[in-house]
């Protein structure tokens, strides 16, 4: 869209279409995962851990693009259900690592199979070229949105000098380890 073009009606805007796809995905998936006692957002954490083996909490925050407090709450709930285990990193006592328990691996594997089925329906009829183009476009949208976030933050800081001292807090995700000490997470 050039600056001269008006935005389309809300129903045709990419952001709203993405919202509708996400909402429909939750409507379809949550009942599929209910018998496993997990919701769609839980399955995304579990499958990321299944694929990675273990992750730092800060890495999960970045991957999921969710606030640290939300991820921490989610991990506590998954830990109570004995699906994940959190441990302090040996190489960096400030970092907390998360990994699946054996029960968590079983649940994550089942979730991944169901997710693959849903993914198959989502991409049905798309060629490999179209899929690659779609992925590329979505990544580009994500990066442009991050650029907008940074630009707006810089503008706000320039207008409100007292925010300069807090810039790092807003610029980098913050996580808390078990001792509740604040730790900056590098991107």
Folded structure, characterized:
The protein has 187 residues and is mostly helical. The chain has a single domain (10-184), classed as Winged helix-like DNA-binding domain superfamily/Winged helix DNA-binding domain (Arc Repressor Mutant, subunit A, Orthogonal Bundle). The chain is 61% helix and 10% strand. The chain has 7 helices and 5 strands, in the order ααβααββαααββ. The protein has helices at 14-34, 40-52, 57-64, 68-80, 102-123, 128-159, 167-171; strands at 54-56, 84-88, 96-100, 174-176, 182-184. The chain has a 3-stranded antiparallel sheet with strand order 1-3-2. The chain has a two-stranded antiparallel ribbon with strand order 4-5. A hairpin with a 7-residue loop joins strand 2 and strand 3. Helix 1 packs across helix 5 (102-123). It is globular. Mean pLDDT is 86; it is low at 173-187.
- Broad shape: globular
Identify the strand order in the major beta sheet: 1-3-2
| Multimeric state | single chain
The poorly predicted ranges are: 173-187
- CATH top-level class: Mainly Alpha
- The radius of gyration computed from the alpha-carbon positions, rounded to a whole number of angstroms, is 19 Å
> Main sheet?
3 strands, antiparallel
How far is it from the N-terminal to the C-terminal residue, by CA? 30 Å
Strand content: 5-15%
CATH superfamily: Winged helix-like DNA-binding domain superfamily/Winged helix DNA-binding domain
Report helical residue fraction. 55-70%
């Amino acid at each position: 869209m050039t600056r001269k073009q008006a935005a389309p009606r809300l129903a045709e805007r990419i952001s709203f279409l993405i919202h509708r796809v996400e909402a429909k995905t939750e409507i379809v998936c949550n009942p599929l995962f209910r018998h496993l006692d997990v919701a769609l957002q839980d399955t995304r954490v579990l499958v990321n851990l299944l694929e990675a083996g273990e992750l730092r909490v800060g890495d999960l925050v970045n991957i999921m693009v969710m606030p640290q407090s939300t991820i921490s709450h989610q991990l506590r709930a998954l830990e109570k259900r004995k699906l994940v285990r959190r441990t302090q990193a040996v190489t960096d006592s400030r970092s907390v690592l998360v990994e699946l328990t054996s029960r968590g691996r079983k649940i994550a594997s089942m979730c991944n199979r169901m997710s693959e089925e849903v993914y198959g329906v989502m991409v049905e009829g798309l060629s490999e070229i179209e899929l690659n183009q779609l992925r590329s476009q979505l990544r580009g949208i994500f990066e442009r949105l991050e650029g907008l976030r940074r630009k707006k933050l810089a503008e706000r800081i320039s207008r409100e000098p007292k925010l300069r001292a807090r810039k790092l807090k807003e610029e980098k995700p913050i996580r808390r380890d078990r001792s509740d000490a604040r730790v900056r997470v590098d991107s």
